[in-house]
Amino acid sequence: MAEQIVTTAGVDLCFEAFGNPADPTVVLIAGGAQSMVWWDARFCALLAATGRHVVRYDHRDTGRSTGSPAGRPSYTAREMRDDPLRILEALQVGPAHLVGLSLGGGIAQRLALDHPDRVLSLCLASTSPAVPGSHVDLPPPVPRLAAALSHLDPAPDWTDRDAVVTYRVEAERPYAGSLGFDEPRTRLLAAQEVDRTREMAALMTNHFLLDDGPPPDALLEQITAPTLVLHGTTDPLFPIEHGRALAAGIPGARLLPLPGVGHQQPPPPLWQMVVAEISGHTGRARFRP
Question: Superkingdom of this entry's organism (predicted)?
Answer without folding.
Answer: Bacteria
